[in-house]
Amino acid sequence: MRQTSFEGFHCSLARTLEAVGDWWSPLILRDVFAGVNRFDDLVEDLGISRNLLTSRLRGLVEHGVLQTRPYGPHPNRVEYVLTAAGSELVVVLMAMTAWGDRWRTPPGGPPMTFEHHGHRCRPEVTCAGCGQPVEAGQVQLRAGPGGRTAPGTRLIGTRLG
Amino acid sequence: MRQTSFEGFHCSLARTLEAVGDWWSPLILRDVFAGVNRFDDLVEDLGISRNLLTSRLRGLVEHGVLQTRPYGPHPNRVEYVLTAAGSELVVVLMAMTAWGDRWRTPPGGPPMTFEHHGHRCRPEVTCAGCGQPVEAGQVQLRAGPGGRTAPGTRLIGTRLG
């Protein structure tokens, strides 16, 4: 259940979570990415209730992460596909999946692997500037132009460089 | 509120969400990363209730993402710091933050920026094999050794290559 809206938080992580930050939404995006695009199939795959799925799909469409596309002869039958924003978000979820493969390995090993350009795709977060893998211990945080001392970021600005 | 456990899902994304997949946990990790390490400071920064924060911190410690460290003269006073797993997860959250900067830009621009090695750090997800940025449209999903037709992945295996 959503208790607090992060919409007004001056934090791009919070604003991302506002779009996809509940339990189910990232898994719905995973499924759509994997070709599970239709409502009944999502229900079957995830074991999510129809009401909850309806609500989450509506949110993902409203936030511009998914879009609907008609299929079959009935114009009001739709399936869900990724938008450009959704496609970029899925790539972040791939990096999150790689973290899970490493630190929360399921019995038997990775449940799913990725390929691209004919080889195993191993997602890691690098810096677009220097190409090096990002290491948290090497990173300094700085206040940006949109930073505010406001709900969700009441104190953090005072700790930034 | 947590309705369904993803613990038994044969999916590394689901298992990651089990560790950090509620509204608040990623923001708690953001704060700890930014040097907001103490309970009362987290309450003040986030505006989260003390009960909820207690519960989330306990979960993050149990899942090996945060650890406690005593501070000051009282041995039972602790602050929270990232584990090795938590540090790697924060890097994924940096990529998620970059997505938010781009697609959910707050008024005024990015609230926070990153620096490393003396220059702006721009997180992006690349392939450790070939060094190229990962693009969802180029990626094929494959069933891995730990894949199962089970709750949370009832159907998805049939859609993989």
Describe this structure in words.
- Two copies of one chain form a homodimer.
- The first copy, chain A, is α+β, with helices and mostly antiparallel strands.
- Chain A has one domain (12-159): Winged helix-like DNA-binding domain superfamily/Winged helix DNA-binding domain (Arc Repressor Mutant, subunit A).
- Helix content of chain A is 37%, strand content 17%.
- The first copy, chain A, contains five helices and six strands.
- In chain A, the strands form two sheets. In chain A, strands 1-2 form a two-stranded antiparallel ribbon. Chain A has a two-stranded antiparallel ribbon with strand order 3-4.
- In chain A, a hairpin with a 7-residue loop joins strand 1 and strand 2 (78-82).
- In chain A, helix 2 packs across helix 5 (84-103).
- Chain A is globular, with a radius of gyration of 18 Å.
- The model of chain A has no long low-confidence stretch (mean pLDDT 92).
- The interface between A and B is large, with 107 and 107 residues.
CATH class of chain A: Mainly Alpha
Strand order of the largest sheet of chain A: 1-2
pLDDT under 50 segments of chain A (min length 5)?
none
Radius of gyration of chain A: 18 Å
Question: How many distinct folded domains of chain A?
Answer: 1
Tell me the CATH topology of chain A.
Answer: Arc Repressor Mutant, subunit A
Distance between the termini of chain A: 35 Å
Please give a quick description of this structure.
Chain A is α+β, with helices and mostly antiparallel strands.
What is the secondary structure topology, with strand pairs?
The structure is a homodimer of 161-residue chains.
Chain A: H1 12-20, H2 25-33, H3 39-46, H4 50-62, E1 66-70, E2 78-82, H5 84-103, E3 112-116, E4 119-120, E5 123-127, E6 139-143
Antiparallel strand pairs in A: 1-2, 3-4
Helix pairs in contact in A: 2-5
